[in-house]
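On clarity, I found the account of how folds are encoded harder to follow than it need be. For illustration, here is how one protein appears when written out as sequence plus structure tokens:

:::
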Amino acid sequence: MKTKIENQRVNLNKVISVMIVVFLFLSTGVVAQDEEPIQALFKKGTVVNELWTPEVKINSIQGNIGTLVGFYGGALINRTFLIGIAGGVNLGHPRVNYGYFGGIMQYVFNPSDVVHFSGQLLIAYGSTKDYEDPKEGLLDNFWNISGAPFFMMEPGLNLEVNMSHRVTLVVGMSYRYVSGLDEYNENVLITRVTNEDLSGLNFNIGLKFVKKQKK
């Protein structure tokens, strides 16, 4: 008849044997998984560039022509698809002071051609506020735009000219759709600017600067 200690040793040996079998099974599964190809969103050889574009936009608000200075940039994939951020602040409109910040997507057609086209969509949050004092210079109340909020969506089409491998001239036009602006907000008691006032055609010019390629 086996003693209690002998029974414990037998049980321990069984546990160890089961653990070894389980370990070998898991190891075989890991090896099999390593042999399977890993699927990814971007294929091997995908080139991602960092791109930044300062730009100037010209538009008409409440019958006055104004200019807005802005930028957009982000990750340019295979020199074709851009996804990134964008922003802008009023520079030269005499009555309405406003700005925005949001995201942008852009697709470039035949980027290797000297002259080519691109299409884009800008979606952003904006804000407008009346001037505290009459605007006398370009930089008067430049950043004083935190006031009545609005939402904007702006599709556009551009003509692009490659000046060099890393610099591209961009000229184009877009149409801005604005919603959610309250014309009775206390921050716009003077201009009473509306969604329709801020909506409309924009003409833009800018320079794309592409940084060194990264794989």
Remarks:
- Residues 1-39 form one domain.
- Residues 30-35 have pLDDT under 50 and may be disordered.
- The chain has two domains: 1-39, 48-210.
- The beta strands are 48-61, 64-77, 81-90, 98-109, 115-128, 148-162, 167-179, 200-210.
